[in-house]
Amino acid sequence: MNQPFIVALDFSSKQEVNEFLRLFSDTPLFVKVGMELYYQEGPAMIEELKAQGHRIFLDLKLHDIPNTVKQAMKGLARLGVDLVNVHAAGGTQMMKAALEGLEAGTASGVRRPMCIAVTQLTSTSEQMLRAELWIAHSMEETVVHYASLAKESGLDGVVCSAKEVPLIREHLGEAFVTVTPGIRFANEAKGDQVRVVTPAEARKLGTNFIVIGRSITRASDPYAAYERLQREWNREE
Ligand SMILES: O=C(O)c1cc(=O)[nH]c(=O)n1[C@@H]1O[C@H](COP(=O)(O)O)[C@@H](O)[C@H]1O
């Protein structure tokens, strides 16, 4: 997985997805299918994207009792996607069950999908963490703690803000994968995101993968926006 950009296909129909991908002349991308698209188009969308050669992050953020997550993951593994996720807040038993389900659902001789855990959503602020969610630790401490639980459970990595990547590296090592949404070009509106960085900052902070949605999908010229992303990522400082 050496492609560092994951494009969030946050559309509500297959038709919109195909119109968007056509702008890329059907070049294989690393795409993310989240709740908005999957709940409308279901497994057939995954089949279609796979047939077009795209790598797929199926982002359904599972968070339930261990047995339910295990059985759900068994089904998701059969779709043959590359990456899936859970909420670390579900705890270690749930995360271990997720892996068991993935292993049970993966055909023999095939590598199971990578599984990562959301530490704290990039839309959560330090203030919200304490005042609303009643988590009496800083954002950084909370993210590192949740990431440690994910690692202890055998997961491959985490979703966090790129701001937290250096700490994750320090505490959990270089091999633990970091997938970081909350990416905006300089001077772009944050919208509902809070812990935001630019593509160049994300690279400097050492993330493995960035997830980018609206900055590309809602741009007036999505292909030009993707080229800008590649330029900014590759620019030597
Ligand atoms: O798991 C995710 O992908 C995710 C976790 C998180 O903490 N924050 C976050 O924004 N995401 C997803 O990343 C994408 C970000 O989209 P944009 O804000 O449009 O770039 C959305 O599809 C979110 O569902």
TrEMBL record:
Organism taxonomic ancestry: Bacteria, Bacillati, Bacillota, Bacilli, Bacillales
Active site residues of this protein: 59 (for ompdecase activity), 61 (proton donor), 61 (for ompdecase activity), 64 (for ompdecase activity)
Residue ranges of every copy of the Orotidine 5'-phosphate decarboxylase domain listed in the record: 4-229
Molecular function, one GO term: orotidine-5'-phosphate decarboxylase activity
Gene Ontology annotations for the cellular component aspect, listed alphabetically: cytosol
Gene this protein is translated from: pyrF
Matching PROSITE patterns: OMPDECASE (PS00156)
Highest taxon, organism lineage: Bacteria
Subunit structure: Homodimer.
Binding site for substrate: 10, 32, 59-68, 122, 184, 193, 213-214
Manganese keyword on record: no
Listed GO biological process terms: 'de novo' pyrimidine nucleobase biosynthetic process; 'de novo' UMP biosynthetic process
Family stated for the protein in its record: Belongs to the OMP decarboxylase family. Type 1 subfamily.
Record-given protein name: Orotidine 5'-phosphate decarboxylase
Pathway it works in: Pyrimidine metabolism; UMP biosynthesis via de novo pathway; UMP from orotate: step 2/2
Catalytic activity field: orotidine 5'-phosphate + H(+) = UMP + CO2
Function according to Swiss-Prot or TrEMBL: Catalyzes the decarboxylation of orotidine 5'-monophosphate (OMP) to uridine 5'-monophosphate (UMP).
UniProt keywords, alphabetically: Decarboxylase, Lyase, Pyrimidine biosynthesis
Pfam families per the UniProt record, alphabetical: OMPdecase
EC number: 4.1.1.23
Top-level EC class as recorded in UniProt: lyase
